[in-house]
Design goal:
A hairpin with a 2-residue loop joins strand 2 and strand 3. The chain folds into 2 domains: 33 residues; 130 residues, Rieske [2Fe-2S] iron-sulphur domain (Rieske Iron-sulfur Protein). It has 5 helices and 11 strands, in the order ααβββααββββββββα. It has a 4-stranded antiparallel β-sheet with strand order 2-3-5-4, with no helix packed on it. By secondary structure, the chain is α+β, with helices and mostly antiparallel strands.
Length: 174
């Protein structure tokens, strides 16, 4: 009988240690599946739109991607077409072109030519105008507009606001 109780105790002890090990491994697996805090924080980027200067392209970062922000000049606004105007993001009376800075052909980063007011993708020669529309193929579509929400003078990239939803519903962006 003495052996039986010792054997029972050893079984219970082994079961408890195994249970703690299983619980520890489940916690470790869950932590490895969760996104890192830096990735979670990169999901939303807030831009103060009052700091941008007319005609100057600034490249911001959102989720590791370049985002082009161009505050349009009065001359750009005057000569733009209806389709270019639909891509404008208007904040406090200022017109902005905001787009993910990756060519829609193969994902290269186009360079902005200030004198010509256009983007040139060096990979295959594709061109985009100052509003992000394709002017020379091979890119299959205009530069993509990231999801955004406008709050006062700020634009929050990563959130979907009514302005972005309207652009997406009308087919201006994906």
């Amino acid at each position: 009988m003495h052996n039986n109780s010792r054997r029972g105790f050893m079984g219970k002890a082994f079961g408890a240690v195994a249970g703690v090990g299983v619980l520890g491994s489940l916690v470790a697996m869950k932590k490895s599946w969760d996104p890192l805090p830096s990735v979670r924080a990169a999901g939303f980027t807030t831009l103060d739109m009052s700091i941008y200067k007319e005609g100057e392209l600034i490249t911001e970062q959102w989720r590791g991607k370049p985002v082009f922000v161009l505050k349009k000049t009065a001359e750009m606004i005057e000569k733009q077409t209806e389709s270019q105007e639909k891509r404008d993001i208007i904040i406090n009376g200022s017109h902005f072109m905001v787009a993910i800075g990756l060519c829609t052909h193969l994902g290269c980063i186009p360079a902005y030519k200030v004198d010509e007011e256009e983007f040139l993708c060096a990979c295959h020669g594709g061109k985009f105008d100052w509003s992000g529309e394709v002017t020379l193929l091979p890119p299959p579509r205009a530069l993509d507009i990231p999801p955004f929400k406008i709050e006062g003078n700020n634009m929050i990239l990563g959130e979907i606001g009514p302005e972005f939803k309207a652009m997406k519903d009308s087919g201006i962006t994906l």
